[in-house]
Amino acid sequence: MDFIYGFLKGMALGAGAIAPGVSGGALAVIFGLYDKITNFIAHLNINFKRNLIFFIPIGIGAVVGVLAFSRIIEFLFANYEVEARYAFVGLMLGTFPIAVKEANKKGFKKTYMIPFIASFLLTIVLTYIGNNSVNAVMNAGNEPAHLILYGLIIGFGTIIPGVSASVILMYIGAYELVIGAISNFKIMFLFFLGIGFILSVLLFAKLISMLFAKMYGMMYYTILGLVLGSIISIFPGFEMTFFYIINIIILISCFVLSYSLGRYAGSR
């Protein structure tokens, strides 16, 4: 069961990493994986075998999520964007209480609310800027240097909660190029994309792991602010129509699903 649950978490992370407006790092936080991932990457020589066994199903799930859901997400966000966003919001909200519990496991201080509010407001402001600058500002290139840059951006969005790599890729006009290459499994494209991704993850994981070790509560509440801002930023709004009532049912169903899975994992 642990393997299946890890695999499903990985699939969600993979799908979230390529979904427009969704932060892969935020999903890692709400699934209780964020500090585990950054610590593992930053300290590969510590408990390597145990960590590797833990992350194998998550890694397999993430790869499957990216490859299998690239076309599905491309289709959903092109044809059912509002419904897809409601589903992601429900999934993220369902595990937010577990993330808060994780943040408080070493105690709570009122001063933690300062970075929480600051990072929350920062995410909202960046989202507003992004929503008003959605058009591409440059033509996307497919040279190796460009592909490595796109990989760096995806890695940045995976490690930094609240940052959506897909929004940045859209802004520079590269999102459709990247999602198309993934869905069509273009080997050379994925190779250079992977180089950039790995470099980015290794760089930022080391830094964040060090910060967590020095100020766990402060860092976690900063990240929770980014996560909450990320959830609000992808919420598509609400109107009193039958269409939106169906979407609320989707949101509640996804909330119950993720909350139940989170509680089950926490009881293990």
The proportion of residues in beta strands is under 5%
The gross shape turns out to be globular
SSE sequence, one letter per element: HHHHHHHHHHHH
Query: How far do the termini sit from each other?
Result: 10 Å
Low-confidence stretches: 134-138
Helical fraction equals over 70%
Helix/strand-derived category reads mainly alpha
Number of domains: 1
Q: How would a textbook summarize the main sheet?
A: none
Tally of extended strands? Answer: 0
Instruction: Kindly provide the radius of gyration, computed on alpha-carbon positions and rounded to a whole number of angstroms.
Output: 18 Å
Assembly of the depicted chains? single chain
Average pLDDT level:
80
| Number of helices, counting only DSSP H or I runs of 4 residues or more | 12
Q: Which terms summarize this structure?
A:
mainly alpha; 268 residues; globular
Folded structure, characterized:
This protein is mainly alpha-helical and about 270 residues long. The chain has one domain (about 1-265). About 80% of the residues lie in helices and about 0% in strands. It is built from 12 helices and no strands. α2 packs across α5 (about 80-105) and α4 (about 50-80) packs antiparallel against α5 (about 80-105). The termini are close together.
Fold topology:
Blueprint: H1 2-18, H2 24-30, H3 34-42, H4 48-79, H5 81-103, H6 113-131, H7 144-159, H8 165-171, H9 175-183, H10 187-214, H11 216-234, H12 242-267
